[in-house]
Design goal:
about 375 residues, about 40% helix, three-stranded antiparallel sheet, single chain, DegT/StrS_aminotransferase, Aspartate Aminotransferase, domain 2, 12 strands, alpha/beta, Aspartate Aminotransferase, domain 1, 2 domains
């Protein structure tokens, strides 16, 4: 067997290649490169898929987070609470909105935000709590909603890794507003950067759309200081084609995760845990192993595209050293960062390939 990638984008493209080609021709023939029916169609279809009534397509997931934060009133002088174990973009979006990131630790079993720590970190300056739906499952948003009731603090969800996931039967965004990314490697991936904001509130959707279109909804009408962050029509073509296959792809990911669970049984590996009430979509299958860096090197040398998500908690990056957190501030996040390992996972991953991955992993552990 040849190399086994972490994500097989070629296999994903093969499933939609003809439809994408036809869609590109359609856009080019009409010269509808900005906005238009392809973007509007995708927004309708993604809203229907998620079950959240409003969707606004934007240029990328980081912009989506910033725009969602700004739409709920986050700005200079505000604080936003988020987990330390996340991709840097989550904290970047807070900083770009002019606010201060306030970090908290994670649950050591699920890697999701420690909601008790988040609620304890709320101050008079807190304007939002930003749970991250990591690896394909939702954080305990309902606990945050209950704890924040009556405070005026908003929940803004980072839903970049959970397209199609639910918690207690509810999707991301159903607690108010959520931002997602369509980076190529996501469960729903574009052919470049793309993102969206989904919300239950029409007024928030209008604000996001206004901010993303130079602060106005019509040409030369600028009501707010906005930016240029619009979903490209060509990316919308790709996303519409892939969206039609997303439910089946998520089901295939669940089946692959179950196979990994069985194959890894008995190995010195900490397998991932699905929180009670969650319907997981397995964006990533993340295990914990001892001597992780050596194990990763062995897998990569054997042609297996394992990776790390993420090797450095936010507070230990030079970019956010100014927040003043030192090593030891978030012990669960720090301990996990030294041991986590992401195994190959994508809808087209076959059982034979998974057996090779686990056999090679077992050899590396031995």
């Amino acid at each position: 067997m040849g190399k086994i990638p972490l994500v097989d984008l070629q296999a994903a493209h093969a499933e939609v290649a003809e439809e994408v080609e036809l869609g590109f021709k359609r856009v080019i023939s009409t010269t509808g490169f900005i906005g238009g029916e392809e973007v509007a169609g995708f927004e309708r279809e993604y809203a229907a898929f998620t079950g959240v009534p409003y969707c606004v397509g934007v240029a990328n997931g980081t912009d989506a987070l910033e725009l969602a934060l700004r739409a709920v009133g986050v700005g200079p002088g505000a604080e936003v609470i988020l987990p330390a174990n996340t991709f840097i973009a989550t904290a970047e979006a807070v900083a770009r909105a002019g606010a201060r990131p306030v970090l908290v630790d994670m649950d050591p079993d699920t890697y999701l935000m420690d909601t008790d720590a988040a609620l304890a970190a709320v101050t008079t300056a807190t304007r939002a709590v930003l749970p991250v739906h990591l690896y394909g499952q939702l954080a305990p948003v309902e606990r945050l909603a209950e704890g924040l009731a009556g405070t005026g603090v908003r929940i803004v969800e980072d839903a970049a890794q959970c397209q199609g996931a639910t918690r207690c039967g509810r999707p991301a965004g159903s607690w108010g507003i959520a931002a997602t990314s369509f980076y190529p490697g996501k469960n729903l991936g574009a052919y470049g950067d793309a993102g969206a904001v989904v919300t239950t509130q029409e007024a928030l959707a209008t604000t996001v759309r206004t901010l993303a279109n130079h602060g106005g909804l019509s040409k030369y009408a600028h009501e707010l200081v906005g930016c240029n962050s619009r979903l490209d029509a060509l990316q919308a073509v790709v996303l519409r084609a892939k969206l039609a296959k997303l439910a089946a792809g998520n089901a295939a990911r669940r089946a692959a995760a179950r196979r990994y669970d069985e194959l890894l049984d008995g190995l010195d590996v900490v397998r991932p845990v699905t929180a009670e009430g969650n319907e997981h979509v397995w964006h990533l299958y993340v295990v914990r192993v001892a001597d992780r860096d050596r194990v990763l090197q062995t897998l990569n040398a054997a042609g297996i595209g394992a990776g790390i998500h993420y090797p450095t908690p936010v507070h230990l990056t030079p970019a956010f050293a100014h927040l003043g957190y030192g090593r030891g501030a978030f012990p669960h996040a720090e301990a996990a960062a030294d041991r986590i390992l992401s195994l190959p996972l994508y809808p087209q991953l076959g059982e034979d390939a998974q057996e090779v991955v686990v056999r090679t992993l077992a050899g590396a552990l031995a």
